[in-house]
């Protein structure tokens, strides 16, 4: 998905309206709801009411309560009715009804830079027709705040400071309890965990959706494998479940406690789960968890508008030990982030040498820290240029220009400016540029973005001086 003027203006105008700036933190709400959108002849879901009417009512409730990020599952053949009565400014386009779509969509008050649909590599029809549709998960990188006033970023020399992103995943795992179902579901969760390890390196993460799994099922280990408390592997996803934290006093249950429809307690367990983790860039904390059943009732109050209780969680966030700039360029190539390396250093990072490569475009960016650590991204093309920084000289500003190559947005140019007013540049400038500046008292110490033979997308990591 290429950046568009729509996305650029979203970042320019919406981010400043989020509750608080990145210097002080803020809050947001998330909702997960399986909307029971399979055609009635395939699955009536044993829910009263006409499915079209239910879908319209669900959409109107989304609009009424205005949750910041809503993930829906089974959003198949009644999708247009939900969207027709909703008013969230950012919404994913449907991938289609049965049997073409995944049923996964997102409605949001916050803009995102990237969006992908990923199909499960494994599915099972042992208990139900899970292979009928391309179920799987979605990925999006949401901008949850910005401390700058964010004027239009397509103007040359537009100065910005920090931005705050988190990676959001929406999933719908295989159902059923047959051995083949359990194996498929575990494969589904492993696929998400592997994706997080690759594409969310260094980032805060939220995963929520219909897992079709419960902790209390001894043979069903899928959701347990996501928990940091159950998965001590340091390379694992290290996620927390706010239901376990806030409703179960941090203890993963082993005894089944099923929820009614509508649920009258938050203590019971459903297959609809929420997971999250912080990063060195942003600290997340779940403050409140509830099943929002009473907010999505049928007209007579007898049942939720779906056969699932909606899950509502309130989060707060605060700045981490590191910060980052906004991202510039296109979401192509492989994700890279220097955040884990920088966060693991024993001393404050201090660049000593900046090294860029470029010709008609920017081929690579790199720097060497005073302790000898080298951070390099991109390819080996172009001509190298370097700048050695003095002991009390810091990298404060970076101008980036983007352009089109082979129908993809890439970084064409970089110019670094130090505290001594010295510069070094590589690549070819375009008319689509931005100036990214470290906050007062901070400096640029690393990179994050996407690359291949060249640099497709680029942002900068800031650390205190």
TrEMBL record:
SMART domains: Jacalin. It comes from the Eukaryota. Coiled coil: none annotated. Pfam families: Exo_endo_phos2, Jacalin. One of its GO terms (molecular function) is sphingomyelin phosphodiesterase activity. PANTHER family: SPHINGOMYELINASE DDB_G0288017 (PTHR16320:SF1), SPHINGOMYELINASE FAMILY MEMBER (PTHR16320). GO terms for biological process: phosphatidylinositol dephosphorylation. Residues 1-20 form the signal peptide. Residues 322-464 form the Jacalin-type lectin domain. Keywords: Signal. One of its GO terms (cellular component) is cytoplasm. This is Horcolin.
